[in-house]
Amino acid sequence: MSVTTKRNTGKTTDLVLTEQESNELRLALRTYVTDLRMEIAHTDRYEFREELKASRAVLEEILRRLSGAPTAMTGQGRQGEAE
Questions:
Q1: Long-range pairs for 73-77 at CB < 8 Å and ≥24 separation?
Q2: Residue 79 and residue 60: Cα distance in Å, rounded?
Q3: DSSP letters spanning 36-53
């Protein structure tokens, strides 16, 4: 699996993963996102909760891309395999 990302500066980052590495990364991200949801639910400070929500949204988008959903940002269509 090869993933290309575009930064705000216009630069891209390429990441090439084996199928096993891709699976492990998805599992780790899913676990972290689940933990992050719990943290958001238990956070009292509004500003911190909003930061956590923004982080969760970014990680969920990465998971979506790793799962092979098309993305307009890279213009590469499906990447990786379906879960």
A1: 73/5, 73/6, 74/3, 74/4, 74/5, 74/6, 76/4
A2: 15
A3: HHHHHHT---HHHHHHHH
Between CA 14 and CA 43 the distance in angstroms is 35
Burial class (CB in 10 A: 0-12, 13-18, 19+), 22: buried
Give the pTM. 0.66
Q: What is the DSSP letter of 9?
A: T
**Span 3-18, pLDDT tens digits:** 655 556 667 788 888 9
